[in-house]
Design brief:
The strands form 2 sheets. This protein has a 4-stranded mixed beta sheet with strand order 2-6-5-4. The chain has a 3-stranded antiparallel beta sheet with strand order 1-3-7. 32% of the residues lie in helices and 24% in strands. It is globular, with a radius of gyration of 16 Å.
Length: 156
């Protein structure tokens, strides 16, 4: 499958080491199958006066060969996992996480939940109306090297 990664630079040799730690699914290389989502994310770099690139890759893997966690909705399991990752308290060893991205609307709900303004039930009540835009987070260098192949980069 073709996947995309937005950046301020061409990323022809992806790695885990340049990732920030406190993201939705922790430290890893983040990708999406939704080209428009990658462009929207890359446009953030343009607004900051930087260059913006959408990097294209081929991702090929088998669920049987890797330790993969998939979230199919914004549910309590997803919310707990994202909470642990964003606070640096995730100790899982998944090779890849697949699940909903915290877009602008979702992030507002998460911020309110993390600040204690919303209970888990209230946050989940708001999130149930959101359709997840799926992201892939490759967290192991081994999987990154064996399953992801660089295709090209496009400057916006």
């Amino acid at each position: 499958m073709i996947v995309y990664h937005s950046s301020a630079v061409v990323v022809d040799a992806p790695d885990i080491f340049h990732s920030r730690r406190y993201l939705d699914f922790g430290k890893g290389f983040y990708l999406t199958t939704i080209y428009e989502q990658a462009v929207r994310y890359a446009e953030r770099f343009l607004r900051r006066g930087r260059t913006a690139w959408v990097n294209y890759y081929s991702l090929s893997f088998s669920f049987e060969d890797w330790k993969i966690k998939s979230f199919h909705s914004y549910d309590s399991e997803w919310l707990d996992f994202v909470s642990k990752c964003r606070s640096g308290n995730d100790s899982t060893d998944y090779d890849m996480i697949i699940g909903g991205i915290a877009n602008d609307r979702v992030i507002l709900t998460l911020d309110r939940y993390f600040a204690g303004e919303l209970t888990q039930d209230q946050a989940l009540g708001l999130l149930k109306f959101e359709k997840p835009n799926i992201q892939y987070c490759i967290r192991s260098e081994k999987m990154l090297n064996e399953c992801l192949t660089y295709i090209k980069s496009e400057q916006l």
